[in-house]
Write the structure tokens for this entry.
Amino acid sequence: MDITQTYPNPGGHPGSGILARLLAPFWKEQATTTIANSSGNFRREAHIKKRHDGVGSTAEAPVLFSLRDIGKTFNGGVQALRGIDLDIREGEIFGIIGRSGAGKSTLLRTLNQLERPTEGRVHFEGRDLLALDAAGLRQVQRRIGMIFQHFNLLSSRTVAGNIALPLELAGTPDEEIKRRVDELLDLVGLTEQRDRYPNQISGGQKQRVGIARALATEPRVLLCDEATSALDPETTQSILGLLADINRRLGLTIVLITHQMQVIKAVAHRVAVLEDGHLAELGAVADIFTAPKQPITRTLLQEVIGNEIPPGVRDRAARLLASGEGRIWRLGFRGESVDRPALTEAAERFGLKINLLHGYIDEIQGTPFGSLVVAASGTAEAIEAAETFIRNQEISLEEITL
Amino acid sequence: MSPELLRLFQTSLLETLWMVGVSGAIGTVVGLPLGVLLVITDHNGLLQNRPLNRLLGIVANAVRSTPFIILLVAVIPLTRLIVGTSIGTSAAIVPLAIAAIPFIARLVETALREVDRGLIEALQAMGATPWQIIRTVLIPEALPGIVAGLTITLVSLIGHSAMAGAVGGGGLGDLGIRYGYQRFLPEVMTLVVLVLIVLVQIVQSAGDRLARRISHR
């Protein structure tokens, strides 16, 4: 029997690559993987690819990066990082946010050892990166792709030449390089630009080349260093869309740093908030957005959700409070509670007057969330009872004092 | 102008081209790696080595600060050792090359420093070895600058080669001094200067064009 007949797609022909996996229907992907593995093209373990739903499935996924008590003090004595503990799991999009100088760039670079931490341990796939020798580290680095704010493409090479670079460095045979480059060009939608030089293409296209180049060696994880900060809002959306797509379809873990909450909101599953080199807050994006605990997080959230009560509204509320009756509440909604008419019901049931001061409703990865600031006036007992009632509706209630 | 003088002109031009070409080639072959070494051994370089860096820098500066006419006679023992004689065109090539090496090294160093550090970081993130970074990023990215530097070197070598007459090296400059100045033939002097002007123009514009062609910035 002819062995090759068993495999519809033998010998590493273009159909077995990333593109095929992207185009292949979701449920057939397992089969594609088996074929690809049999032809020796894909080292990636099958279990990663089975998980495509992205959101929510990451909590139980194996840990990819484990950081323990990371500290970094530069030669000049500047302490960039201190006491950072983090686990980044396979298949998640992990965001790191902070102001400039918070240490996020340094933290990202400890993941692929472009920066060596001065304290603590970094484990990748269970291996201690700080214990590796130079050659061992280079092997590991090929499994960690990286893209940059300013793209860092070689001006002396064409688009195709740039994408081929990491494969050339790894000593991949020419034919294989050509095949992979074609596949990757297709993946990022730049087939027509293949022979252009970086100075002949737009910023968004440059970042697509960066992504294709980073994916060339089929890494386990993609590190994004402010990848959209140099792009206009529209291009940012398309690059973020591409990243989310790659994450979903290839199960590729993505770690991104940004100073824009917008970026976190658009793609990240979990987020770490950095402040002055330490970890201020860490959690699922939906949790951080709906219930930020640290002042720094609230400040950063300002950019997207305007949590702060506008001054005019604040004055009105202050007058209301000064008149002696009523309270100011901040109500937090999330998920189904957004659709509940709890406030109206509370007003009717306890005879309160509710005055809407400020509010918004938004969505993170399909989960609606919102916040309302209201002035409630009525008898003290009625207000107490209404507070209990509202809290029982899975709505967070916080009394604001001005 | 007499036919003998014309032949002399031809010979001198070829001598100049020969001296400049060979010393330029030697200067490039030795100076380019030295320029790379100056960059990678520097502080925060790929292969940081401060003592070596400082030594190279001092030697390069020492050679460059020696006036060429002094260098020409100072290296005569070395010239005799290498070429077997201290007079003639080949003998002039030795000091010319010695002057060209640190000159090229410094120009290459400047061109390499212009390469964006982000590119080096990108390559390091890919797990590239220092040698791979030099070969695939540093030199290709700095090539337009290196070509511009070599053009400057060739032009200044043409100038320096005029002094080669001091060791009987011949060439256009020597012709100008001996015939134009010492024998009072102003037309020879004029012609020498004109030919040198044309030569420099050709070298400079060819260098500029090549640098532009390979630059994709």
User: Anything to note?
Assistant: Chain B has a mean pLDDT of 93. Chain B touches chain A at residues 116, 118-119, 121-129, 132, 136-137, 140-141, 143, 214-217 (CB under 8 Å).
